[in-house]
Structure formats: C-alpha cells, structure tokens
Write a structure and sequence with these properties.
Blueprint (H helix, E strand, L loop, with lengths): L1 E2 L1 E4 L1 E2 L12 E2 L1 H13 L3 E3 L1 H8 L7 E8 L2 H13 L5 E4 L24 H9 L3 E4 L12 H19 L5 E3 L7 H10 L3 E7 L2 E2 L7 E5 L6 H25 L1
C-alpha cells in the first residue's frame, strides 16, 4: 500500500510574472482538485489523521494534504474548500515569522507574501486542521551546524505549542534539504512524522521522518494531479482486464 501526500504552497491568484508563480495554485483549480478527489471516493487528511494509515493500522482511499510556510491565502482560500468536502490538512509554520512575511525568499527577488498570524493559526486549528512545524526561521538545515539545526527543529515545536496550546506532531524540512542526522533530531524532538520534497508516494516501509510528497503547482494539470494520486489504484484494477483480453 502506498499513500500520496500532496504538497501545496500558495492557494491564490498567481502573480503575472516571475519564477515563483509556480508555487501558486488558483482557488478555482484547488477547488476542482479537491472536488475530483472527493468524487473518486478519496478522503483528504492532515498528517496527524494520516498517521494510522502510514502505520498500517487503518486502510482506505486517503490522500495527505499539506501546505508549506503558512501563507494567509491558505486560511482564506483553501480552508473553506477543505471544510466543504470534509477534508483535513496540515499547514507547516515557521514559528519565528508568524504574522510576518516570507523573508527567506527575499534574496531571490521573490516579493513578500503575508504569513498567518496567531489568530489565523488558532482559527485553522479550531476548524479541525493541523499546524505542523517548519523550523523557527525557514533555514536550510544542511547549511547549519548541528546545534543550530537542533534549535531550529526542536525550538519550533516548543514555540508553537506554547503559542497554540496544542501538541505539534508533524514537521517539514525547509527547502526539503536535510541529512540523516536531521531526521534523527526530528525524531528525538518528539515529532511523529516529517516530510520532504522527494517526489513519490509514501509507503508503510518508509522512514516516517523522511516521507516523500507530490508537489502540486501552477503548471500541474488537473488530470495529471489526479492521476499522480490515483494511478496505482486504477492500474491494479485494470491489470486483470488487460490480461484477460490477451488470453
């Protein structure tokens, strides 16, 4: 059994120019993607809700839904759609930049985008969604010494738990960059799962501190996005039919 975990950044109108446009999915397209998954019988789940399936304790047609960075457009545009279809999702938040902007992108010429403030985060949780950790400053862990990396990984959990009064169980590596020792730091910090940007489905044999995801971006074709999440199941259904025709 393998489970697709979707990775989103922005759910909003893409800017007219700039390479960062690829990180946007329009609200219309996001709604279509969720609606198609729902019509196909899939349940969108946060990493917390997905964990029993990753452990093999539950089975079913499920898809993980995650958002990196914690942009305000997630709560404004994605949350109502998720609620409409009865889905849950995880938003990975940079604890030291709550209510600020994506300053880590400035050196690449990316315009600032507002990040959720504490009220947005509390609303997200109150509406049944999960907040995950994305370090304190969106640092590239592979460019840090071990002490800094540990402070970023474990400190983010502490910050968010203090601010929100909830247990923070899910972690995401900024830029997807990490080494084996960072996965161990996440494990020791008390996270249940940690996600990367490796493009694959998650399987029961995967290290839950190094889970792959499927990135959904501006250029992702709707049918292609659905096939990425459903193809394996359809392939298994179609295989006996194709074999029967060749006998």
């Amino acid at each position: 059994m393998s489970i697709p975990i979707l990775l989103y950044h922005h759910v909003g109108a893409p800017p007219p120019t700039g390479g960062w446009r690829s990180l946007f999915v329009s609200p219309k397209h996001f709604e279509r993607q969720m609606r198609v998954l729902h019509l196909l019988g899939y349940k969108g789940l946060s990493m917390h809700d997905l964990e029993p399936y990753l452990l093999g304790d539950k089975t079913g047609k499920v898809v993980g839904i995650t958002f990196d960075d914690g942009y305000v457009d997630n709560v404004e545009n994605a949350l109502p759609v998720l609620q409409r279809f009865g889905f849950t999702a995880t938003c990975y938040v940079v604890s030291g930049l709550v209510g600020s902007v994506n300053v880590w992108d400035a050196e690449n010429g990316v315009p600032p985008s507002p990040l959720m403030d504490i009220d947005h985060l509390k609303s997200w949780v109150a509406d049944g969604m999960e907040i995950g950790a994305h370090t304190r400053s969106h640092v590239n862990l592979c460019k840090c010494d071990d002490a800094t990396a540990l402070a970023e990984i474990a400190g983010c959990k502490d910050d968010l738990e203090l601010a929100l009064g909830v247990d923070i169980q899910s972690f995401c590596y900024p830029f997807g960059e990490h080494r084996a020792e960072h996965a161990e730091m996440a494990r020791l910090a008390g996270y249940h799962t940690a996600t990367t940007i490796v493009k694959a489905r998650a399987s029961l044999s995967d290290d839950r501190m190094r889970l792959p995801r499927i990135s959904v971006r501006l250029g992702t074709n709707l049918i292609g996005a659905v096939l990425q999440t459903t193809w394996e199941r359809w392939r298994l259904k179609l295989r006996p039919v194709r074999q029967a025709r060749t006998i």
